[in-house]
Every structure is written in C-alpha cells, then in structure tokens.
Amino acid sequence: MRKTAIIAEYNPFHNGHLHQAERARIETDADAVIAVMSAQFTQRGEPAAFDKWSRARAAVQTGAIDLVIELPTRFGVHRADRFASAAVAIAERVRCQTLSFGSESGDISAVTQAAAANIEATPAYQTAFKEALDNGRSSAKASSEAFGSLYPDFDLTLPNNILAYHYAKAATSIELHTIRRLGAGYHDPSVSDVMSATGVRAHYLESGMVRAVPDATRTLFQDNPMAHWSLYWPVLQYKLRTTPKDVLEQLVGIDSSLSPRLIQAGLEPTFEQALARLLTRRYTRTSIQRALVAILIHWRQDELPERFDDVPYIRPLAFNTIGRTVLKDIKKDVPLLSKYHPNLAFEARVTEAYRLPLGNRSLVEHMQTPQFIDSK
Amino acid sequence: MRKTAIIAEYNPFHNGHLHQAERARIETDADAVIAVMSAQFTQRGEPAAFDKWSRARAAVQTGAIDLVIELPTRFGVHRADRFASAAVAIAERVRCQTLSFGSESGDISAVTQAAAANIEATPAYQTAFKEALDNGRSSAKASSEAFGSLYPDFDLTLPNNILAYHYAKAATSIELHTIRRLGAGYHDPSVSDVMSATGVRAHYLESGMVRAVPDATRTLFQDNPMAHWSLYWPVLQYKLRTTPKDVLEQLVGIDSSLSPRLIQAGLEPTFEQALARLLTRRYTRTSIQRALVAILIHWRQDELPERFDDVPYIRPLAFNTIGRTVLKDIKKDVPLLSKYHPNLAFEARVTEAYRLPLGNRSLVEHMQTPQFIDSK
C-alpha cells in the first residue's frame, strides 16, 4: 500500500490544500494520503482557528485526505527544525513512502542539495550564527542569516523554504516530493479561488464572509466561533497578573529577561497592545506567541520532550475507509492511541486551555475518539 | 478620640448594617466608627458581590462609617477563629476602644462568659472533637458539637454566635459591645425595610430588583455586574483541567483526598453541578468554596500567614474627614499602606483573579489608592 504524507496545520483547510492533496495523490501514485496536523496551537504559536477534531474532520470530509494524525503540541509548537523533526518522524513511523509539500518552484533538487550541504555542522556557520545573535537578532533570523552567508543559493528566509529544508534534513527513510503552490499566474480549471489560510481568516474577520474553501470548511465557520489570540487575552491577563515571576520563568521560552516584560504587558487592555509592547529584534512575534502558549497551558521546561525525532505515539483524529485500512495495517507494531491514555494528559491540558474562551462546546479530550468519516 | 470598630463583609452594605453602625456610634459614644472589611472574597469563600473598593466607598458614603480598613484575603478567608483573630488584631492595632457587633439577644454577658470558660483548652474538648471528626463531621461541625457537649448554655452552631465567641476569645485590649439585630418583631421608625445580605443578593438575582439598601449600595448594583461563583466556573474549569494533581495539593485546603474529587468535578458543566458533586459530611460548602478560592488565586500552603493575631499592615480602602483624622492620628506608629507596596503583592493577585469574569472595569490593584469621601 503506497502512502503519502502531508505535514499541515489546516488552519483552515482551503482550496490550495485541496489542490495540493489531490495532486500529491496522483503524482505519487498514492493509495492513501495521510496528514500530520498541528493540534490546538500552530507552529508559530497561535490558537488554531478551529479545534483539531473539527479541522481533522473537515479535511477528511473533502475526500482528499484519508487519515489525519495529531502532531502533539509538545512537539509541534516550536521552531521549524523541531516541528519538522517530529512531523517527519510520525510520517516515517506510519511507513509513508513519500512526503509531499508545497513549494514556490515545484523543484525538489534545490531543497535536497541545500540539506545535503549540512551547513549547520560547519564551524563557519557556528561563528556566523553567534555573531548574528550578538547583534541582537532573534534565533530564527540569526540562523537564516548565517546560512545565507555560507550558502546563498537557497533562501532560508522564505517560510516555505525553511520548512522544506528541515523536512529534507529530518527525512531518513521517506522520499521527498513537491507540488508547485497555487498563486498568481497559476491556473487550474478545478481551482477557481485560492487564498492562503491567513488570507481566509483575515477576510472572514474583516467581512464575515468565507472564501476559497471547500464546503466542509465553510461549515466550520458557520458552526463555531473562530479562535484568535484576542479572545484569550482575559485569561492571559489573569495568568500574567497572578503568576509570580519565578514561576513564569519555569515555563518554556521564558527567561529572566522576558518575564518582567510579560508581567508589564499583562497590564495592557488588549492583546494587540500587549504584543506591540513585547516585540523587539530579539523577541519576534512568533517567539512571544509561543511564550504565551506556554503560559496559557502552564508548560514547564521540565515537560519538554527529550528528543524531537521520536514521537512516542500515533494518535488518529479522523479517517475514512482507506484511513481505517492504514490504521489496521500499522497497529500491530506502532503505538496507536485511539482512546484516552495517560500519555495524552498534556494534550488534554492543552485542549482545556484552548477551549476556555470558545464557550466549551466540544467534548472534553478524555471523551474524544477518532472520527470515522464515510467520504469514499 | 473614641473609636469603635465593626468587623464586616458589607456584601453588600444594607439597611441592617446602617442601623448597626448608627446605633454603635451612639451607644459607644464614638467619635469615629471604623469597619474592618473582607476584601474580594468573603470568610465563607465566596467572591464578594462587588469589589472591595466599591463596597468600602458605599459604606463611607452612607455617613455611618468613617473609615474602612481591608481585612487581607490571606487572613480573612478562613474558619471563624482565624478570621476573628486577624480582624480583632487590626481593630486593636488602630487603637479602637470598642468592638461592636450584632447579636440576636443584644446581651454581651453570655458571649464573654462562654469565651472565658476556655472550653477548647480542656482535654475533654479534645476528646470530643476528635470523636466527632472520626464520625465524619467537618472540622467546623466537630468543633461546635464538642463545645456544645461541654458547654450547653451557649449555642455555637449559630453563625453569629460563632463569630461573637471568637471575637471575645481574640480580644485583648478592646471592649466588647453588641447591638440587637433587626429582624421579626423589631421596630425602629428609621428602618422600614431590613433583609440579610444573602437575602438582598438572592432577591436581586431572582427579580433584578434591589431592596433594603441605602442609595450608595443601590448605585453599586446599577453600575456593576454582581459577582457570584457561577461567573467564575469557566476559569475554575480551566484551572482544574490544566493543573496537575500534585500541584493542586500544594494549595490551601486541598489534600490528596479532595484533589481527585475536584479534578472530577471540573468536568461538570456548571458551578452548582460541580458543587453538588463535591459536598459530603466532611467537605462542607464553605470548605469547598475556600478550596476554590485557593485554586482561583493559586494560593499555596507556603503562603499561609505564620500567625493570625498579627496582621503586618493597615490598609485603608475609603474614609471621610473623620476617618482622615484617625489615619493621621495613628500613622506615626502603625504600618499604614496607602500606596502600592510589595506586601500587597498577594492581595493584587487576589484582585486580578477576582476581576477576570467581571470585565476588568476597575483599575488594577497597583494603581488604586484609598478613596476620600466627603460624607460629613
């Protein structure tokens, strides 16, 4: 059985995702297309627009995805290299032959060559990286600057390139494949309207209208409040104003230089005002948002995974008939969690923190099981 | 200058409180009437209907109270003996000559005689108390049963008697005075409508109408949402579902037998359903509510005061011209906090936790200062 993996957030699943999954199935000759999907918070530290169960269901309902596997929060809300390590590890664990991702060029060789060059292992890179840090760059920016100074052929400042590069670095047994992303100048008669996920969310917030998504995603918008950071500001204020400084500094991504700034920002009336106060060259929006995720779920440093290239379990969120066959196929030698298990305690905390400002509509994590969707 | 103290919650200040304060001023020949008032949470572990600054202002606006001093949460959300110790210590610290309180009988001698008997110091009491605990009684109930079996002349199961008794036990330099409480059969032409504070709140929740209160309190109801536990349930759920069991057990009033019950109760959709699940003979409504206060403010056992008969500071919340004279009078040798001070860090946490579901209307604690009200 040929299985192709896609690493995604589906925040939300839109026409571009549909195109990518359908092309990947054809081009890799896949019997099953499996998405490894971020849970309640995205890699860049934002609450996903809709909860993971709903997003997984919508993806399978389109018929383009056969199985959605959770990328646990502890592994997924991190800089690109850790995110990629964990997601690729899951894809390999369920024995996907191919990993398919979107790119501007549609050409895989530039990515694999850049990864093979192994620039980060050179002393020159370490020097350049440290220098950029000393100049007040954020860790992500220092890393891409150091890389660019030594390997100018591949632009590591583009977000899609960063992820592709780290997928290629993390891949051990899986083959890489890329689909050219839809955008200006691209025409496919089956896809008439394409926006990025950010564009879809922004358009909805501004106009109340949902564009460029399949029906399953449209239903998500109709049936649920859309999560975004501003809704969490009262809870974050409560946490920032009631948590002693030394306790804050036990949390992931918060050091003694950030903690007093966070406490001060907790006095701002809105999330955007607080964020504006917090941004510096060193503390980017992404690093601040990840720190706020850590605060919201009280994620202590001692709860960080020991390694990121080995996720201890596979948790299906939604599947169709083909996905069910995949699960039956692998369950003998892969640790598959379909019911609640103590390993999911952290993820359950995440879900409770995520649900709070959304009105607690969905079932608590303990009672959720993967959803079978008869899409094929 | 003759000063009379009243220990109160003013939750909210009603006509009965007005009568008590006015009678106390006359009967004790007081130049100043000073209230020692619970902060954001009451002795029995409930969020006060309105925040302490508003409640203090309303009390002074009536003209019956000249100065309101905060009874800090760390000292005030406790069983009656600790509450009384701390409140009496404050009254004595500001050199009140008299402590006046309400009672059914209007007769002080039964109270002082019962306190002087010092029943709790006898071995017979210890035996009876332990026996009642072993029979599954709550600590409060075991204590009143043991007392009643040895001293039947004074009924320690009546809430007013309990407080009066502990005031008498705690008093060292202050003289006791009592006012007969208004109720059935009592007629004072100046007070036509009297309800208990519980009655006032319940009537408001049921009918939306405010009864039996002076204008200053009526304004509180008009200008603010009324706090009650149900509004805090989403936050409590968040805390109960995201706080590991061992961390819960570090909090005041939560042992390893209560913690799993609390976590289970966190799954209930409403506060009242959760409370109903939690109540037993051993865990009374009061003890559960106090535990919920501890959860809401993350009050660790290591943050308990070392002793309750010595509050480290005096913090005025509101005063009029007479109250200002009192403050000037004592400030040379009493630790008076009128501006923010690190000693108030815990109380600031309490206020932030209290404010959250009320829409954050008031100033943060750090920016609050006592209010002068020109009531006389």
UniProtKB/TrEMBL annotation, chains A, B:
Belongs to the TmcAL family. This is tRNA(Met) cytidine acetate ligase. It comes from Exiguobacterium chiriqhucha RW-2. It catalyses: cytidine(34) in elongator tRNA(Met) + acetate + ATP = N(4)-acetylcytidine(34) in elongator tRNA(Met) + AMP + diphosphate. HAMAP family: TmcAL. ATP binds at residues 7-20, 102, 160, 181. The keyword tRNA-binding applies. One of its GO terms (cellular component) is cytoplasm.
